[in-house]
Design brief:
Distance between the termini: 46 Å
Number of domains: 2
Radius of gyration: 21 Å
Strand content: 5-15%
Structural class: alpha/beta
Shape: globular
Oligomer: single chain
Largest sheet: 5 strands, mixed
Helix content: 40-55%
Strand order of the largest sheet: 3-2-1-4-5
Number of helices: 14
Length: 338
């Protein structure tokens, strides 16, 4: 975070920080170093405070980020101008014939220390299929790698599709029955996910099957994936930035979802205000390899035949496939391969 971005953050959080004691600048500095992965011993020594003062400042900082309305993770889908800008930027950054995508979503398993039997009814439910205790976090981003929706209410054993469907946004997008959903469908807009999610008239997923697809269904899968793959880069950016996510979360169990939300909010703030931070969506170096290696994707792998999803009917997916065909955009050839 640049110096200018730091002082912008201090100004945003100042009204929500305690008055008296250490200064807002010191509280924000200690909070950022904690979320950046700094050792509590080093952070306390650098700021010349006791360990208890450090932790109190970190939670004051976390509460301030949660209280500041302009730090909220929002998705203004009721704004026609936002919808048009977002869809156009998705189309531009993916060089895609699809001009109706408002967001891409996926799940990530956030590592955590095992909760105790006093915290949860069944500790085993928090063991993910990859063999570590986790919190299933579902998230969506826009074409500028800013997160527009985050849900971290499910334990690690919950499948991504179940976690998404059980969230408020997921239930709304799957049902697609209210006036706003109908407005989005009339405008042709959608959100994209991978093959583990259920198709609906607002959720576009790939056609099932690894082979035997028509050339236009295969082309649709390519361009749908080109939009969706950026969520992995966004996960890589936030994990690289937030060192607190590099090791299992160890704070009290009820604070862990708040810490995850705060990490995502700070990432968004840096994307919006820090010109010296991560490169913008048009830059050539988004999603550094080292960061992506830290991401533990929580998506289950679909079976090769795709039979679990073959029964799903989606007029949205069929229409988007016809749009790819009308544009004459096949999957680009891979150079060097016959």
């Amino acid at each position: 975070m640049s110096e200018g971005c730091f002082f912008k953050l201090v100004d945003v959080l100042r009204p929500h920080l305690p008055v008296g004691g250490i200064s807002p600048e010191l509280r924000v500095s200690m909070g950022l170093l904690y979320y950046g992965g700094g050792s509590y011993l080093d952070v306390a020594a650098v700021h010349r405070v006791s360990h208890s003062t450090l932790y109190n400042s970190v939670w004051d900082f976390t509460d301030a980020v949660s209280s500041a309305k302009n730090m909220d993770i929002t998705m203004p889908i009721d704004d026609p101008q936002w919808r048009a800008r977002t869809a156009a930027l998705f189309q531009k950054c993916g060089d895609s014939p699809l001009n109706n995508i408002l967001g891409a979503f996926d799940g990530i398993a956030i590592d955590q220390e095992p909760p105790t039997a006093r915290d949860v009814s069944c500790v085993a439910d928090h063991m993910s299929r990859k063999g570590f205790f986790a919190i299933n976090t579902q998230a969506m981003f826009d074409a500028n790698y800013e997160f527009t929706w985050v849900s971290c209410r499910n334990p690690g054993s919950v499948h991504d599709s179940t976690a998404f469907a059980g969230s408020d946004f997921g239930a709304w997008a799957t049902a697609a029955s209210d006036s706003l959903a109908r407005e989005l469908m009339d405008g042709g807009y959608c959100f994209v996910g991978d093959e583990v999610y259920a198709a609906s008239e607002l959720v576009a997923v790939p056609w099932p099957g690894r082979g035997g697809l028509s050339q236009w269904r295969d082309a649709y899968n390519f361009y749908q994936s080109s939009a969706r793959i950026h969520i992995e880069l966004a996960f890589g950016q936030v994990v690289q930035r937030m060192g607190v996510l590099w090791r299992p979360l160890r704070m009290s169990y009820d604070k862990r979802p708040v810490v995850i939300q705060t990490a995502f909010k700070l990432h968004n703030f840096c994307r919006r205000h820090d010109s010296t931070g991560m490169v913008h969506v048009t830059g050539p170096n988004d999603g550094p390899f080292d960061a992506r290696s830290l991401v533990r994707d929580n998506g289950a792998v679909a079976d090769a035949s795709g039979s679990r999803r073959a029964w799903q009917q989606s007029h949205l997916r069929e229409r988007m496939t016809r749009e790819v065909e009308a544009a004459g955009r096949l999957r680009p050839p891979v150079h060097g391969m016959l």
